[in-house]
Amino acid sequence: MARIAFILLCHKNPDAIIRQAAQLTAAGDCLSVHFDASSDAADYAMLQDALADNPNVTFAKKRVKCGWGEWSLVQATLHAIEAAVDTFPHASHFYMVSGDCMPIKSARFAHQFLDQHDSDFIESFDFFDSNWIKTGFREERLVYRHFFNERTQKRRFYTALVLQQKLGLTRKIPDDLEIMIGSQWWCLRRRTVEALLAFIQERPDVMRFFRRTWIPDETFFQTLVRHLVPGREIECRTLTFLMFTDYGMPLTFYNDHYDLLLGQGAFFARKISAEAAALHERLGALYVSDQLDFTISDEGRRLFQFLTGRGRIGRRFAPRFWEQETTLGRSRELMIIACKKWHVAKRLVASIREHTDVPAIEYLFHEQDALLPDLGGIETTLEKRARHKRALMRMVFEHFGSDRLVICLDTSSLDLMSDFFTDRANVRLLEIECDFDDAYLIGHARRVGLAGPQAGDATLDRLLPTIRHDMVFERDSIRDAKFPNMTRISQTGSLDANAHAIAQFLSVNMDVALRLAETPHLFVD
After folding, report:
1. Which residue, among 489, 490, 473, has the nearest Cα to 481 in the 3D structure?
2. Are the C-beta atoms of 60 and 33 separated by less than 8 Å?
3. What is the CB neighbour count within 10 angstroms for residue 86?
4. How many C-beta atoms surround the C-beta of residue 480 within 10 A?
5. 244, 428, 488, 502: least CB-packed within 10 angstroms?
6. Alpha helices, DSSP H only, in 401-483?
């Protein structure tokens, strides 16, 4: 049976650490603590006294003063690892945690999982080719020597960096190492940790290199594990669930996130709010329970991106000057069908093709495989279509040799609609208003990845009101825009009312409009 030795780096709040130690060791696991040497000595003494009688807790024999982005964080981790290896000979795995971490699975579940997976769990992406670093330094982290802390000694940090750049004082990466990068929250097998400690003794050149690397806790272990362990024995992921805001700050979890956290494919979550007392209590009890039946949906990041993105609708970068100065053509008619249920719009488009001579294209700005002609490459990706939308539409008009064209847009595309309505062409809009029952909303959430196939009722209950509100918001935003030449058909509308709206939209007679309004199964899901 797997036995975990947790590696805990902390610097404050001894009461919380004492509680965390009791929770993590209650199921037979171990804990090795490094308490920052720059922290209050009385707090450290309190911590040692409170945990002295717990045989499953040990302390790093050496303490260092830690600073964000510095080698000191790696050194502190190594001291804690060495203490754990010496003190807990039966520990099979070493798991990095912080004081803000809490378990989101039972210890029994974690042990069983580790017994079944003979792997190291650590993010380990190519430093140069991956997109793991979103902003800030990349090569500068490695090729220059960093002597000062950017946060506490900003002036010295940048003076030293600029001086090295001007003098060309770069350094060489060790020849046999491929630098990797990833999260500092890992879980490693004992043999991997022992191999890593032996490597450190054998390779002082590698230690010298990383000591002057910026933010080495994101590269040191990630690089050495990949160097020492066959790739087939590495799972490139972390077993700690964490998310970041748009501003690069860790997202904090509160009492009402319990069900969400249990649905993630991880053992721990970071950061748990210190004020979330109920969540701490429930997760602590969960860890020592025998629960094994967890429904893993892994929709946490998708949900966060969806929910936080709602407030950003309508924001966009300024249009490029060549798009501002172009037009579809004064004599052309662009007819837009806006509908959330794509299958409904597609049925109407098929009828338009059948009963009229107006060319029609389905969701060309939303579906990669929308039926588009060869337009010289501008049509190859959705990004290109959106970036050069007016040029694309002009080319489509020219391809069909028609001054009239029907396209479909999702109701979320208010920016596209607004852009087209500022054109000199004659632009008209037909909104298709559909009903959305819970079954459709659940299916929609799963189709777009907001909820996994195993998402539980509690997750769906939280999600459905937001999705429904989102769809109502999109509809209201379109109507609030007060576009000219806008008509509407409705699932609950009469055949005659829908036909009149279609006739106005397409400029066709009522006989044709009635045949279109009578499209078989138009609103059926």
Report:
1. 473
2. yes
3. 11
4. 9
5. 244
6. 414-421, 438-447, 457-480
Which backbone phi and psi does 180 adopt, to 5 degrees? -120, 165
Give per-residue pLDDT as tens, 230-266.
Answer: 999 999 999 999 887 655 567 888 888 888 899 899 9
What are residue 261's phi and psi, to 5 degrees?
-65, -40
Which amino acid makes up residue 275? E
Query: What six digits make up the tokens of 385?
Result: 């279509």
E strand segments, 355-422? 360-361, 404-409
The C-alpha atoms of residue 17 and residue 57 are separated, in whole angstroms, by 11
- Of residues 342 and 82, more confidence is placed in 82
Q: Which residue has tokens 């989102």?
A: 470
Residue 408, classed as helix, strand or coil, is: strand
Counts of helices then strands in the chain (DSSP H, E)? 21, 17
The residue assigned the tokens 């902003």 is 135
Question: To the nearest whole number, what is the mean pLDDT of the chain?
Answer: 88
Phi and psi at residue 293, in whole multiples of 5°? -90, 75
Q: What is the mean pLDDT of residues 16-25?
A: 93
Helix ranges restricted to H, 187-340: 190-202, 204-211, 220-228, 258-262, 277-287, 300-309, 321-324
- Does residue 116 contact residue 29 with C-beta atoms inside 8 Å? no
